[in-house]
Amino acid sequence: PRRIVLVRHAQSKGNVDPFLYEHTPDPSVPLTATGWQQAVEAGEKLKAAVEADGCPARLFFYTSPYLRCKQGMVQAFAPEQLLGVQEEVQLREQDFGNFQDAQGKRREKLERLRFGRFFYRFPHGESGADVYDRMTLFEDHLVRDINAGRFGQGCTLVLVTHGLAARIFLQRWFHWTVDDFLAVYNPPNAE
């Protein structure tokens, strides 16, 4: 591929209302109206960047299976510009547990800061290290597909995922240490 682009999902209803997770499963949380606009604008921005190369746009999208990652961005592209759109379970959000008590989750996130953001495992959920393990599997498969010529020359791979998953992708890809990872924070929505 010509490039690999990582995009954090646009603003979701969970980003503006943490109490939503008390009754809505995380994979079902949709974008807000602002989020839809952000996602479409991110798609247009990506399209302009790809077309600025002077080559025809040829993109392959990998998305988290979470609803907020599958909404909005792909609509910027004509069907003939898309080599494929594949939902990839390994790109999902860090598991914070099932239905979440917002007050309890706030306490756990403070505890995570004391314990260490990478190794802290949420009760009934995952640690950053757990996400690292599944991202390792994803990257191994991605490299195998690249080496096998699945995408062809000059295409753009787009990963629409979550903040932590994107950072851990970069950690694996660039062989960052845990300390390097801890120096980086989530990008804004739709960036």
What are the key terms here?
single chain; alpha/beta; Rossmann fold; 4 strands; 40% helix
**Helix count, per DSSP?**
7
How would the global form be characterised? globular
Q: What is the CA-based Rg, rounded?
A: 17 Å
Unreliably modeled segments:
none
Describe the structure.
The protein is an alpha/beta fold and 191 residues long. The chain has a single domain, classed as Rossmann fold, CATH 3.40.50. The protein is 40% helix and 12% strand. The protein has helices at residues 13-16, 33-51, 67-70, 102-115, 128-147, 163-173, 178-182, and strands at 3-8, 59-63, 82-87, 156-161. A four-stranded parallel beta sheet has the order 1-4-2-3. Helix 5 (128-147) packs across helix 6 (163-173). The two termini are 20 Å apart. The model has no long low-confidence stretch (mean pLDDT 94). This is Phosphoglycerate mutase.
Helix and strand layout, with pairings?
Blueprint: E1 3-8, H1 13-16, H2 33-51, E2 59-63, H3 67-70, E3 82-87, H4 102-115, H5 128-147, E4 156-161, H6 163-173, H7 178-182
Parallel strand pairs: 1-4, 2-3, 2-4
Helix pairs in contact: 5-6
Protein name: Phosphoglycerate mutase
Pfam families: His_Phos_1
Short summary:
The chain has 191 residues and is an alpha/beta fold. The protein has helices at residues 13-16, 33-51, 67-70, 102-115, 128-147, 163-173, 178-182, and strands at residues 3-8, 59-63, 82-87, 156-161.
